[in-house]
Amino acid sequence: MAGASRDQALSLLAAANNHGDLAVKLSSLKQAKDILLSVEPSSASELFPYLVELQSSPESLVRKSLVEVVEEIGLKTIEHSTVLLPLLLTFLKDDDSTVARQSIVSGTNIFCSVLEEMALQFHHHGKLERWLEELWSWMTKFKDAVLSIALEPGSVGTKMLALKFLETYVLLFTSDINDSERPVAEGSRRVFNISWLVGGHPVLDPYMLTSEANKTLGILLNLLRVATSLPGALTITVINCLASIGRKRPVHYINILSALLDFDPNFETMKGCHAASISYSVRTAFLGFLRCTNPAFVESRDRLLRVLRAMNAGDAADQVIRQVDKMIKNTERALRDARDKDDQLSSQLLVSGDLFKKRSIPLDNDVSANGHDLASKRIRYGSEMYMTSPVQLNDFRRDEGSVNGLPTDFPLLDGELTPVEKMIAMIGALLAEGERGAESLEILISKIQPDLLADIVITNMKHLPKSPPPLARVGNLPVSRKISSLNGQAQVMVGAPTNSLQSPTLPSQGPFSPSTIMSSVVPDTPSVNNPLDSKRDPRRDPRRLDPRRVAAPVGLSSTPTVEDTNTTLSEFDGPISLGKPNLIPVTVTVDNPSAPLISKMKNDESLESPLVSGTGQLTPDEEVQEGPEETAPTIQFNDSTDPTNSPIHTVDEDTVAINLSDDPVKEEADASSFLEFDHHSPVHSNTSASEDTCQDLPQLPTYVELTQEQQECVRKLAIERIIESYKHLFGTDCSQMRLALLARLVAQIDANDDVVMMLQKHIVMDYHEQKGHELVLHVLYHLHSLTISDSVQNTYPAVVYEKFLLAVAKLLLDSFPASDKSFSKLLGEVPILPDSILKLLDDLCYSDVTDKHGKDVRDVERVTQGLGAVWSLILGRPQYRQACLDIALKCAVHSQDEIRAKAIRLVANKLFQLSYISDNIEQFATHMLQSVDSHASDVELLQCGSTEERSEGMVGSQETSVSGSQISESGNSENNFPTQAHPSAQRTTTMSLPEVQRAISLYFALCTKKPNLLQHLFNIYGQAAKTVKQAFHRHIPILIRALGSSCSELLQIISDPPQGSESLLALVLQILTQETTPSSDLIATVKHLYETKLKDVSILIPMLSSLSKNEVLPIFPRLVALSIEKFQMALAHILQGSAHTGPALTPVEVLVAIHGIIPERDGLPLKKITDTCSACFEQRTVFTQQVLAKALSQMVDQTPLPLLFMRTVIQAIDAFPSLVDFVMEILSKLVRKQVWKLPKLWVGFLKCVSQTQPHSFHVLLLLPPPQLENALSKHPNLRSPLAAFAGQPSVKTSLPRSTLSVLGLTNEMHTQQSHLSSFNPSDTVRERCLEDDTSKGNMVADHMGY
Amino acid sequence: MKRMKFRYAMVCSSNQNRSMEAHSILKRQGFDVSSYGTGSHVKLPGPSLREPNVYDFGTPYKHMLEDLRRKDPELYKRNGILPMLKRNCTVKLAPQRWQENAADGSFDVVFTFEEKVFDMVIEDLNNRDHVLMKTVLIINLEVKDNHEEAAIGARLALDLCQEIEATDSWEDTIDDIVAAFEKQHRRKLLYSISFY
To answer: Which parts form a coiled-coil structure per UniProt (chain A) (predicted)?
Structure first.
């Protein structure tokens, strides 16, 4: 096997060396590497020489890959990699900078692992193997080579990496205790540090290495000094590397800082460098230093700030300072808590620790970001400082690991835990992790959802021990002024999140609780172990000189928890000293300097009291000897005597329970503290102690039983307090927490109105800043979650929920104007909407609202508001969609027009668009539409019923359609309905017009959105009652205008209108053409309808203006046959014409057309025509004098003459007397046309002549004598005037004798007759006369005789 | 298409406007580019200064688009937020946070568009373990956070990226590139160098 893979590897390596194709080379090399990695290191090493051969490969890519392969194999088979290392050195000088760079990177990695291997090997075996020493010598060479790269000219990129290596080198060989903590928390690799090394290492001499590191650092610093000659990128790298060293190794910080401070980028001399970037990197370095919390950095803070301000980076610097301060505080607190809980909860570590890690990932963001975590790591520096021995540190780490790694027998997380309990357990687990958990804990706490945190707090309230934690009680003094018995609760609620940390321990601790509470409530106590933060110089910390502090690590080999032990000891002192102030002087130790913390926490006041009790006896001699530096703490002690007194009073006033609890606590505390001292068992002393003691102790009652009233009172007070404090707080930081707390408190409070009212005021006040809204939602969601969680047993939360929601909703309505969106927003976002809310909404929109005086106070704006809410609920809350839709629909048929209009707009324009409810809406509208028929069922029966009846009905309606269509008022058309056929359909509906309108408006509105609903309207129209039809007529214009004439559904209906809908159709057409030119589709449809189905020409009226003369003329008689009104309408259309075709007929043509109608042929009574004519004459503006004249002159030439011609002439002369001359001409023409032969016209002619005398005398005299005679006999009154006229000499001479003889003037005129006759009536007349073969032949003969 | 040598990251504070504009442009030009924000949350302008719309990183742009469209389509259309989100939807799924991008691998060039962001990126890089020893160039080009400036800034970033892409190794030429750019566009740049 080995042989096979060996051969394979060999051939692959050969391919990598010799193959022509680069890709093959690379892949062969990779495969060879895989084989080498898979076989035994020893057999792999046999092939190394072949690998080395590849170094002369001409392709840089191959060489670069080779470096990578060397690194990978070297790290795996470090024992055999000596052969490979020279390669790295060679490649450092490779011409291709990528190869050189890769070998720096690979070399650095190998360098680190060689170092590590050396340290570990010696540590484990006490000696080093030779191969390792050899490797190390190569590594030293490597280091020198890289150094020379850094210093000699060359590729900037390569030099940068060389500088990076130098940085790494300095870091490796500069002792860093601090860094040892990093790996576990960050999951990064564990890097060797010189602090691992113990003395006596055969090769690695810490002293020498440190001085090497210092030397290297010196080189870097020197580079900075000559920066003017370096490329800018290099200078920046140097600065960054130095800054990194400075941050990570405080030992070098001062050196580096002063170098950077001295560094004056002399911009003038820097040729080709980007000066701004260089100075910015200095700035970045300084800001980085500012983030460090190590004392060394803290000292230089002011200096840094000054410099940064000078660099215009003051703001950034201030911000960093703020961040750091905040972080220090947070970390401290978490750290303290963590330590307190460390022992007690270590058993939970594994289980819950894992759980936490999983959970914490999503939670963790802001705090860990931005390098805060770095700072929080640093912060532990101080506490670790005291452990000076590197060995111990090392052990510590290992110990911790092994402890953590042990599976434990305390699976505390049974599956039934609620999220809150889980969280509590999680926090507990973190606390148990101690140092390492602290950071995560802080993040966790800051990231816990306010709701959850509030739950934790509230849950905790349940577990408040009978005896309130002494310190808490004391700290609570301000509150106690109000109700002393409430202190416990109030305090916890008001407290900062830190307090909630106590929760994890409490449930599981049982009898332990007094002390654990103590420890958690007094988280600040151990904080004094911390580096005293930035505010105090740790070197002035008196604790440094505390003999116990020094003694502990020295005396014990396993000291990791020494500090913790101290801490727990001091915690136990709390209750002890309070209960029995004179007890145990020794244990109150470290706590004195807690003074600085006082300013931070309100509660801190409390810290002092237990301390005080001890301080008197306690203050160690050593501390006293400290002299002046001690003054501050001492003063503190003195000051704190006052508070000591008051808490004690409080204690006395408190319930008896406290006294009860005192004794056990004391005993317990005693026991444990003694145990501690005796055994000094570092890890589990506490636990064991407590277990021992509590077996003998009676179970303590853990609750303070409050009466119902007290509970209520407490809750109210709590709410009040929270609200009050909230008012002054505008930041959003704590508001989440507050909201969550308030929500829970409201849930607990009896649905007591004044509490709700109190909250309401608050809600309204803040509503517009969203705070009130948030609060309400918090409360409601919380209540709702309670409802869901125990709906069966307890309906109480549901009741509160409903009540609260209703109250808030009403409040919003009352408090804000209708335009305010809060109400709608509220309903949209609350978890559920109970019926009462829907009712409220319904009332708002629909029901009549009357005020106290019974007056209708409905505000239409409110309706709008309600409908808006309804709309958004329909959109956003499917669950309530139907209910809301019902409201909207109800409003859509509201009797009040304004409301109805609003609702219809909503339903038709918005809701109807929603596919999921459009059917419902349509159904409803249809139903309402049908309901207007009080006999809706009959209509249906009729429609689907007997066909016989229907056909009868059709016949009936067809018969009546002509006359029916003349009647514009639909009410009349009802009469046309064949009543005999459907007695039921002929009904007297009981609904009034407004009622009908109310019911059908929605349907009409929907039609505009969905035109195929129209069909139904037309269908039922025929059978509808009169009022319904009226309502239809009112509604349809808007609808039709909205749809327009090109709506295909409408055209469809027009082309095939249902029976009985003709008048509606006519109305529709009228509307369609009212202001616009009808579309060609419409015209075509209507024409088609007229030609096929509906012979009613009135249907065409609206189209007339668009029709041409040729189209109009054929139907003209039908138009005349219409009612006079319709005809006039038609006439108007005809005359109006369309914009581009002009009028279909001119007025003259109209007149001629009218006269062209022949009653017999066209089936029209003459009367109809005469009426029509008269109607035309009435329109004097249209049918003017000129029009008449023109028409008459056209008609007079017609043969035969129109029947009504003479009538029209007479009317014309009546209407326009000035036409008389023209008429005389017409009459003359008529004479020539022998009008007497047309009896009907002749009568008219004579009448006209008679009426127009004396103008007509000329014409009369033109008549042949028999006709003249006839005329005079018919109109005897003419005779004498005519005779007088004719008797005038000038006239007489021109008249023929026969005429004169008719007039009785023959004798006198006798002689002149013959000679005058030549002037007389024209030849045509004579000719006509000749042609005429009537009985008047004698008259012709008479003429001829002249 | 020519393979791009370097991987680029565009970073602003919310990964919405400036970085996305640049991301979009560079992506179109075939660059291997990603984009991030350094803020703690994604913030978009709201009805008033005090009421921004706040989302978590990772919330899809589409979701924000729908959310804002629901809230006030007019307003957000007018102020260009909706169009911007629409554009962003076409570039990638959701805003990403710089500080959480370790899994995305290393970049060669990181562009920031605001000094604060520049600081945060540098600080974040400094806090990471420099295991790969791979250099990364961080460039800050100050761009105001509005649509117009973002468009201009993205153009400039593209120019600069093209310059950088054209070099064999930016380490040797970055000073010249930056100086030339400043001279040509009269815009100040800052650059820094860190490691992965």
So the answer is: 321-348
Q: Which residues of A touch B172 (CB under 8 A)?
A: 155-157, 231, 233
Inform me whether the pLDDT recorded for A650 exceeds 60.
no
Contact A204, A192 (CB under 8 A): no
**How many Cβ atoms sit within 10 Å of the Cβ of residue A674?**
13
Whole-number pLDDT of residue A265 = 66
CATH 3.40.50.2300 correct for B7-39+97-195: yes
A829: number of Cβ within 10 Å: 15
Rounded-to-integer distance, Cα A508 and Cα A485, Å: 25
- Give the C-alpha separation, A297 to A1305, whole Å: 153
Q: Cα A257 to chain center, whole Å?
A: 50
Cα distance between residue A1173 and residue A1147, in whole Å? 12
What interface predicted TM-score (ipTM) does this complex get?
A: 0.94
Classify A179 in phi/psi space as left (phi over 0), alpha (psi -120 to 50) or beta: alpha
Distance CA A919, CA B91 (A): 40
**CB contact residues (below 8 A), chain A span 158-197, against chain B:** 160-161, 164-165, 186, 188-189
Rounded to 5°, angle at Cα A93 from A91 and A97: 85
- Is the preceding omega at residue A465 within 30 degrees of 0, hence cis? no
For A74, residues 6+ apart whose C-beta sits below 8 A from its C-beta are A81, A84, A85, A106, A110
pLDDT tens per residue across span A810-827: 777 777 777 777 788 888
Average pLDDT for A293-313: 83
Question: With contact defined as beta carbons under 8 Å apart, do B129 and B77 qualify?
Answer: no
Three-class DSSP category at A1225: helix
Q: What is the distance between the alpha carbons of residues A287 and A704, in angstroms, rounded to a whole number?
A: 52
**Which residue stretches of A906-1055 are H helix?**
915-931, 936-944, 947-966, 970-976, 993-1009, 1014-1021, 1026-1043, 1048-1055
Other Cβ atoms within 10 Å of A326 Cβ, number: 13
Residue with tokens 């003249």: A1268
The beta strands (E) that lie in A635-717 are given as none
Distance CA A83, CA B171 (A): 33
The span from the CA of A1060 to the CA of A1078, in Å, is: 24
DSSP string for residues in A526-558: GGGGS--TTTS-GGG-GGGG-HHHHHHHHH-S-
- Which tokens is A1209 given? 């002439």
- Are B163 and B176 a contacting pair, CB within 8 Å? no
Do residues A1028 and A930 lie in contact, with contact meaning Cβ atoms separated by under 8 Å? no
Question: Would you say B124 and B150 are in contact if contact means Cβ atoms under 8 Å apart?
Answer: no
CB pairs under 8 A between A and B: 105
A325-363 confidence digits (pLDDT tens): 888 888 778 777 766 655 454 444 444 434 444 333 333
Whose structure tokens read 């000596």? A82
Answer yes or no: do B171 and A277 touch at CB < 8 A.
Answer: no
Dihedral over alpha carbons B8, B9, B12, B14 (to 10 degrees): 140
How many whole angstroms separate alpha carbon A30 and alpha carbon A26?
6
CB A37 within 8 A of CB A76: yes
Question: pTM here?
Answer: 0.43
- For B133-154, how does the pLDDT look when each residue is reduced to its tens digit (9 = 90+)? 899 999 999 999 999 999 999 9
Q: Report the C-alpha gap between A425 and A429 in whole angstroms.
A: 6
Question: What pairing do the DSSP bridges indicate for beta strands B109-112 and B135-141?
Answer: parallel
Flag whether residue A272 sits within 8 Å of chain B, measured between CB atoms: yes
Going from N- to C-terminal start, the domains of chain B cover 7-39+97-195, 42-91
- Under an 8 A CB cutoff, do A284 and B122 touch? yes
Amino acid, single-letter form, for residue A890: K
